[in-house]
Design a protein that fits this description.
It is a single chain. This protein is α+β, with helices and mostly antiparallel strands and 584 residues long. 50% of the residues lie in helices and 11% in strands. The protein contains 22 helices and twelve strands. Strands 4, 5, 6, 7, 11 and 12 form a six-stranded antiparallel sheet that branches. Helix 21 (545-558) packs antiparallel against helix 22. The longest helix is centred in the N-terminal third of the chain and has 24 residues, at 83-106. The radius of gyration is 25 Å and the shape is globular.
């Protein structure tokens, strides 16, 4: 067992708005050179996309087709106070994501029971800590885990300086794409990924609780990059609110909220970000460049998917703008800065140990690319709603369905229900395993039982959607529509309702109603390529050829792998030619 994580001395050579081990222009050249040596299409090109209004550069890196297959995205965004730093950020974001998903999708992780690896694995208590479960006993969790097969990855525990096995799927379902980072050096990647996990942790706590934190006195700023960035917002009339988000972590975090009174709400949005680094003013810079990255220069509405709330009104965001005490100087925030990144990592790890959090790092460097990349896990750190309203049994059920084929997961889910049930959520996951196995009649019976076991109100819609999915597979389309109507009454923001409704209506040849359903799905998720393609198929059936082709092309722009859209374009474009041939 070897994590291949060794933290060595690593000194900074660039300090303007970010602390890096290599100057940004060198980073861009180095990364592009490494990508160019790959026999795969990873990077298409980089390009600047901001309008120039704020004069804070925003770059994107467009993914090559080979990268898109792993990452599931077509572009990565970069941020920085200078154009070259923003471009460096954009290419590193691509490397980070490509390396991470290549690791997740291509590695043959050993599938072993906890009893087989207990001496080398993280302790059972860390499973409970990761989902903030203080009601399930460690003994009860251990008894279940003993015979549950999990996929294991080797991590380095920075807190204790030892290598440990971690259940990858367990933590991926909590963190998802929160924790990977690429860097000029391993140390740079580790520090950035650690800070990003802390950044999401404090932002999650403060936004969930609507917690009031100290306002930062902008007149206390000394760092030239920080001062310049703030001035750029002020010169353009952007209202800016900066707060100390460090909480008890001992690591400096800055929360930032901005909006433009001249364009909000008709043309622009409220943007809310957090920045975490080892230095408070660098954290402030990170939060501000993230605003620039997400805001579209406050001249247009954007479609970014936030990790913090996307507030629609000033009233919702009031707790971030109100000031009930004297602003604090930026220097009052914790400061872990050192010339040596190794020292900063050690200080950060020690600070988190002080609040009972350990830091685990997995090396996910792509073997051919060779650019240092890591995935950092901090069990007990919050992220979105993944660490709330759950517990060990529920998360164990999710993990089983991700780790094992449904047929293999089924007996373990039954054991889970036996040990911790009766509970609606465990009944639901057992039903879902049957659904995945194609046993729709049996699944429907269990889904109905879950509805009778007092599910949380927010979960009722999801249960009805799964019932509709079963009935769709049984070609009971009218009954499926009734389930979807019940789901909509409990949550009309669930995209799956409208995607599934559109499918059923298509099968019933109610094409105009189907189009309306798919349009609602796109309204909820503007990037839903499949729903554009589905609209195209209904337009095709209605005889609207040109409109259908347009929708198919829109779908392929978002997802080039939708083969039926490509096939339908070819068929529709061939029709006039065939008609012409028949006339001559």
């Amino acid at each position: 067992m070897n994590s291949e994580i060794v933290i060595r001395d690593c000194y900074k050579s660039y300090r303007y708005d970010q602390d890096k081990a290599r100057r940004p222009e060198e980073t861009v050249h180095w990364v592009k050179e490494r990508l160019g040596q790959m026999d795969m299409k990873i990077l298409g090109k980089t390009m600047r996309i901001d309008t120039g209004r704020l004069d804070i550069p925003v770059y994107i890196s467009l993914c090559g087709e080979d990268a898109t297959r792993f990452t599931g995205t077509k572009k990565q965004m970069g941020k920085g106070a200078t154009p070259v730093q923003s471009e460096a950020s954009a290419v590193m974001e691509l490397v980070e994501r490509y390396s991470f998903f290549s690791f997740i999708q291509r590695t043959e992780f050993p599938l072993l029971r906890y009893r087989d690896v207990a001496d080398e694995a993280i302790p059972v208590a860390m499973f409970l800590q990761s989902v903030h479960d203080d009601s399930t006993s460690t003994d009860a969790a251990r008894r279940l885990l003993q015979d549950v097969p999990l996929r294991w990855a080797v991590a380095h525990n920075l807190t204790h300086g030892t290598d440990q096995l971690v259940p990858l799927d367990w933590f991926y379902l909590i963190n998802e794409y929160n924790g990977p980072a690429a860097g000029n050096t391993l140390e740079e990647a580790v520090l950035q990924s650690l800070c990003e996990v802390v950044e999401r942790h404090v932002g999650s706590i403060i936004s969930h609780e609507g917690r009031s934190t100290p306002m930062i006195d902008l007149e206390s700023l000394k760092d030239p990059a920080a001062v310049e960035l703030v001035d750029k917002f002020r010169r353009n009339g952007i209202r800016l609110f900066l707060r100390d988000f460090s909480l008890d972590t001992g690591i400096p975090s800055v929360g930032a909220l901005a909006y433009d009174p001249a364009t909000f709400p008709l043309k622009s949005e409220i943007v809310f970000t957090t920045g975490t680094t080892s230095n408070p003013e660098k954290s402030l810079c990170r939060a501000l460049t993230e605003i620039a990255q997400l805001a579209g220069d406050f001249e247009s509405r954007t479609s970014y998917r936030p990790t913090l709330p996307k507030y629609a009104s000033l009233e919702e965001a009031a707790y971030l703008m109100e000031n009930h005490s004297e602003p604090v100087a930026i220097c009052s925030l914790p400061n872990l800065e050192d010339d040596n990144l190794r020292i900063e990592i050690e200080r950060s790890v020690q600070a988190l140990q002080g609040i009972g959090l350990e830091v685990l790092v997995i090396n996910v460097t792509h073997p051919e690319l060779g650019i240092p990349s890591v995935y950092t896990i901090i069990p007990g750190a919050h992220f979105l709603d993944h660490t709330r309203d759950t517990d060990f049994p529920q998360h164990a059920a999710r993990t089983l369905l991700r780790t094992l084929p449904a047929a293999r997961a089924l007996p373990h889910l039954q054991e889970l229900l036996k040990r911790f049930g009766p509970r609606y959520d465990l009944t639901f996951f057992l039903a879902h395993s049957l659904e995945l196995e194609g046993q729709c009649e049996a699944a429907l019976s269990l889904f109905q039982r879950a509805l009778e076991q007092q599910p949380a109100p927010r979960e009722i819609a999801s249960i009805h959607v799964h019932m509709a999915s079963c009935r769709k597979e049984m070609e009971a389309f009218e009954a499926a529509l009734e389930d979807l109507q019940a789901a909509e009454q409990h949550n009309n923001e669930l995209k799956e309702i409208y995607n599934l409704r559109g499918y059923c209506l298509f099968k019933l040849k109610r094409h105009e109603e189907a189009i309306a359903a798919f349009e609602r799905a796109i309204e909820i998720d503007p990037g839903s390529a499949i729903d554009y393609a589905n609209i195209g198929s209904n337009l095709r059936e209605l005889g609207h050829k040109e409109e259908a082709i347009k929708c198919y092309r829109m779908a392929l722009e978002l997802d080039p792998d939708i083969e039926f859209a490509r096939d339908n374009i070819k068929k529709l474009e061939a029709e006039p030619a065939r008609q012409k041939d028949s006339q001559t």
